[in-house]
């Protein structure tokens, strides 16, 4: 096992060295040359700075709190979401945000494996299937891949779980959610998704990259429950501030 790890490490460094000769690059966070292809262009040092968030947060949607004396955020107190629990690995900031942006918006698909691996410690006992949050046909054509599906593949391979990638569709193109207040995000996503398969009796884990207000996760969960799912939980790489 040790020898295998050594060989994999050496191979990654060798590939990175060749890649840097052909396509010189520097880590976007610290400016050093990346020496592990699997994380490139992020260097191993900056990758190791990605940490799990362990601070106070809402017990349902995981919205981070500034105080340890709360258990539910105002949004979940006002109206309980359709999912039973949403969990995020970390906060959408610093190295994690950079890695997600490189993966999602710059097409560096190889980052799906190390990013997906961050989610492997999540308790998936009793989960019947992973369902990635879908993209609209227009967005899928433009991006060329669904980042949530690639993350789900990494989880499924290691945890031996089923992926249902065609059971939930995004039937309408929604305006960009970035910068919109929560009520407008909710309006945008209402009716944008539809479950097209029977999820009767299933415990579903919804996979996405970033969660902000939870509007997308909530609408997807509503559709999955309508299609018969017993319960839906949500797992994302990062939690972004609602502000």
Task: Note down, in words, how this protein is organized.
With 243 residues, the chain is of the alpha/beta class. It folds into 2 domains: 1-49, no CATH class; 52-239, Rossmann fold (3-Layer(aba) Sandwich), CATH 3.40.50. It has 9 helices and 6 strands, in the order αααβααβααβαββαβ. The strands form 2 sheets. A 4-stranded parallel β-sheet has the order 1-6-5-2, sandwiched between helices. The protein has a two-stranded antiparallel sheet with strand order 3-4. β5 (203-211), α9 (215-226) and β6 (231-239) form a beta-alpha-beta unit. The longest helix has 21 residues, at 2-22. Mean pLDDT is 87; it is low at 1-6.
What tags apply to this protein structure?
single chain, 243 residues, alpha/beta, Rossmann fold, 4-stranded parallel β-sheet, two-stranded antiparallel ribbon, 9 helices, 6 strands, globular, disordered N terminus
Strand content: 5-15%
What's the CATH C level of the largest domain?
Answer: Alpha Beta
| CATH architectural label of the largest domain | 3-Layer(aba) Sandwich
What is the structural class? Answer: alpha/beta
Q: Please estimate the helix content.
A: 25-40%
What is the CA-atom radius of gyration, in angstroms? Answer: 19 Å
CATH topology of the largest domain: Rossmann fold
**Physical arrangement of strands within the biggest beta sheet:** 1-6-5-2
Counted up, domains total: 2
Termini separation comes to 46 Å
Task: Spell the H/E element sequence.
Answer: HHHEHHEHHEHEEHE
Low-confidence stretches: 1-6
Number of strands: 6
